[in-house]
Amino acid sequence: MENCIFCKIIKGEIPSEKVYEDDEILAFKDINPAAPIHILVIPKKHIKSLLDLEETDYELVAKIQKVINTLAKQLKIEEEGFRVIVNCGKDAGQEVMHLHYHLLAGRKLGSKIIG
Ligand code: 5GP
Ligand code: ZN
Questions:
Q1: pLDDT given at position 62
Q2: Based on the number of CB atoms within 10 Å of its own CB, is 6 exposed (0-12), middle (13-18) or buried (19 or more)?
Q3: CA distance 93 to 18
Q4: How many other CB atoms sit within 10 Å of the CB of residue 76?
Q5: In tens digits, what is the pLDDT along the chain, a chain of 115 residues?
Q6: Handedness of CA 108, 51, 47, 94 (dihedral sign)
């Protein structure tokens, strides 16, 4: 979608440090990491937020979770642990209106709920 930062990253119009890519999903490093490992996992389809998932998109959500688990093993963080966050809407502070899963790891993540 035009003027969407993450769609531009998918198209390669904005550079990113990719860590995983397939036909439907892209994972890349967050530009402003909140932890030593901070990866964003996104669907290539422009979906604005969790609330905008359509019936046929739920399969995609399962695939995103599978990518997160694969990355956790590759990055060897499955023993130390990690956190997955999705911000949805204003009160959660969602800044980019293209669904994204934050994968955070590499340090003790202080509070159970960030923020
Ligand atoms: P939100 O607050 O919407 O859940 O998270 C948006 C995230 O996208 C933030 O953690 C922010 O650092 C990241 N971000 C915003 N613009 C860019 C960009 O151009 N490149 C990358 N790699 N990350 C970005
Ligand atoms: Zn988009």
A1: 98
A2: buried
A3: 24
A4: 9
A5: 889 999 999 999 999 999 999 999 999 999 999 999 999 999 999 999 999 999 999 999 999 999 999 999 999 999 999 999 999 999 999 999 999 999 999 999 988 776 5
A6: negative
Which amino acid would we find at residue 13? E
Ligand 1 atom nearest 28 alpha carbon: 22
pTM to 2 decimal places: 0.97
Question: Domains plus CATH for the chain?
Answer: 5-105 (3.30.428.10)
- The pLDDT of residue 2 is 86
Task: State which of 5, 38, 91 you would mutate to test the pocket of ligand 1, scoring each by most atoms of that ligand within 8 A of its C-beta.
Answer: 5
Pocket of ligand 1 (CB under 6 A): 5, 14, 16, 28-32, 40, 87, 93-96
Distance from Cα 75 to the centre of ligand 1, integer Å = 21
**Which residues contact residue 38 at a Cβ distance below 8 angstroms, ignoring those fewer than 6 apart?**
29, 30, 102, 103, 104
Ligand 1 centroid vs 30 CA: distance in angstroms? 6
